Amino acid sequence: MKKLLLATAAGALLAGAASAEEIKLGVIMGFTGPIESLTPAMAAGGELAMKEVSESGKLLGGSTVVPVRGDSTCVDAGAATAAAERLITSDGVKGIVGADCSGVTGAILSNVAMPNGVVMISPSATSPALSNAEDNGVFFRTSPSDARQGQVMADVLMEKGFKSAAITYTNNDYGKGLADSIAAAFKEKGGEVTAVTAHEDGKADYSAEVGALASAGGDILIVAGYVDQGGPGIIRAALDTGAFDTFALPDGMIGAALEANFGDEIEGSVGTVPGGEATNTDMIVKMIMSDSYDSSGPYIGESYDAAALIMLAMQAAGSSDPQVYKDKVMDVANAPGEKINTGELAKGLEILAAGGEIDYVGATAVELIGGGEAAGGYREIVIEGGKITTAQFR
Amino acid sequence: MDFLNAIVALSNFVLIPAIAYGSQLALGALGVTLIYGILRFSNFAHGDTMAFGAMIAVMVTWWFQSMGLNFGPLPTALLALPFAILGTMVLVLITDRMVYKFYREQKAKPVILVIVSMGVMFIMNGLVRFIIGPNDQKFADGERFIISVRDFKAMTGLKEGLAIKTTQGITVVVAVICVALLFWFLNRTRTGKSMRAYSDNEDLALLSGINPERVVMYTWLIVAALATTAGVLYGLDKSFKPFVYFQLLLPIFASAIVGGLGSPVGAIAGGFVIAFSEVTITYAWKKVLVYLMPESLEPDGLVQLLSTDYKFAVSFVILIVVLLFKPTGLFKGKSV
């Protein structure tokens, strides 16, 4: 709210400038719901980029950017669609930073953003299904698809010499998508997938699930679950029955709770977490630091980058019309051109205004590939001496 | 050697877990069946009574742990069990005085009492979550294994490992002791006999001078002890989470009904029937079969009849089959 007031005040001051307009950008995130503790910081990250651009006074001859928030709820597609509808039809936003969770992002894209032709850049929707979603070129994301994580995981397993694996996933869009992509990538590289089974979160006992997986066999068990939910239960049951003693753990399973629960019992297990070597969110985190929310969460840099890309594309196209600037998003994100880091948005706007080209790097080393999603760096981790340690970046 | 491997794999993934789970269900079903036999209604609050008892055990365990008190290789929760049983006894007696007694004096129909017990269930459910929260709580300590997979493999040189968790061993031992005590009490003591008499024929029992309020009170005390023991054992063996006990209600009722409502022997048999069916039907038999079959006949698939997600469906199906063909249950209980 404070940011909003600030931005509005800044907008009022600059309103007199010639040909300048007040551009509204939507920020649609799950401010209520299962990830409500993460979203305030993400939204603040996106709004920081807007403030930076507004204050520079260099966007489209001094235009200002005002964020308008909407609640995606993360899980309720109906509510998310209604929120997006309101932003576009009544607030008249020219672009959307969001949404956050994969399910609602797909719903907003197909029901609101695409029919209205509004550009939408999601910082955190990772479902592979969104790669092939019909979008008329209006949808991008600054986070990598889980299809990419599947390949990275398959590479890691192959290099470590695991030739066969059983997979269990948490029974939702995230788990299913991730498990499928890991299985496909692993098979392609010549690995054998012995079983792919779902597990429900929140059960007391996973020995039956583990019994089935043990029967299928394999060198390693891939657990595509959540570290605060069923994942540790699966690992515990597998260790107790001696079914598996090494595990492959995608992003949802990597957390401090893993070290606390198992320590060196899962020695030699491997994992992958999004985040390249070049990731630099420190500056953003410092700027948005607040007592009222937790700013150590993920996807803050991605949110900043999503907002920045929208505004830089507007500048490159010389228009805030989504139908015009949507074609410029890929241009400003990728080479060739001058590299633009966080805090250098003004410099980027200047170069673009002068007709030059930029290659936006930002907080997360943005590189958009395919239909407009981040190529995505991953950190390969390994459990050594009971601690999560970084092996290398991929 | 292959034959031995098959047996070990079967024990590790089917027999041992099913025996432990069966014992927990049997203890739970005994409580349900006693209430049904003597107070004549299906007590839906039983799962949450277990949760309440286990919750007290968890908190007393934490208190003991903070004082540095422990039970050597055995879990501290066993020391906390008597306190938890006392706490639960107080709770169920208060519930009986405040709620059930009123309906008993009205001579309310059993179906009304069932609905009343659902109300009690929601209150207890809320109470437990209010006190300890809805999340997983850890309270198991002591030695984790009687035999761990690694030791077993080193000892026998077999390819398959066998693990027996301490909690599984304790579950079976405690269940046997509880059942023995219960049967001794019901068959040998005066109070036990009066309980059985009351269960068989209420009016005759009244005529012969049995005090119904005393019988009811003893029933609740025994049920509290059984429920708490079942709850603590389940929590130790698996994990303590309030919602899980609510879900346990289905297999527990299935056990009691399959065995014959009102029949203690039936409750025990029913518990094991349900546990073994759930585990064997959802187990993937590939591993065992690969050891037993000649190479040409080895299965390619997992040989899993139903996915593990259908575990509860198995209890339902058995329940329906028994009600259709033998409504009084395996051991001639009361028909539902």
Please provide a written account of the structure:
The complex is a heterodimer of chains A (394) and B (336). Helices cover 41% and strands 20% of the residues of chain A. Chain A has 394 residues and is of the alpha/beta class. A seven-stranded mixed beta sheet of chain A has the order 7-6-8-9-10-15-16, with helices on both faces. A five-stranded parallel beta sheet of chain A has the order 2-1-3-4-5, with helices on both faces. In chain A, strands 11-12 form a two-stranded parallel ribbon. In chain A, helix 2 packs across helix 10 (282-288) and helix 3 (77-91) runs parallel beside helix 4 (102-116). The two termini of chain A are 38 Å apart. The relative contact order of chain A is 0.14. Chain B has 336 residues and is mainly alpha-helical. Chain B has one domain (2-325): Orthogonal Bundle (ABC transporter involved in vitamin B12 uptake, BtuC). Chain B has a two-stranded antiparallel ribbon with strand order 1-2. Chains A and B meet through strand 7, helix 7 and helix 8 of A and helix 1, helix 5, helix 11 and helix 12 of B.
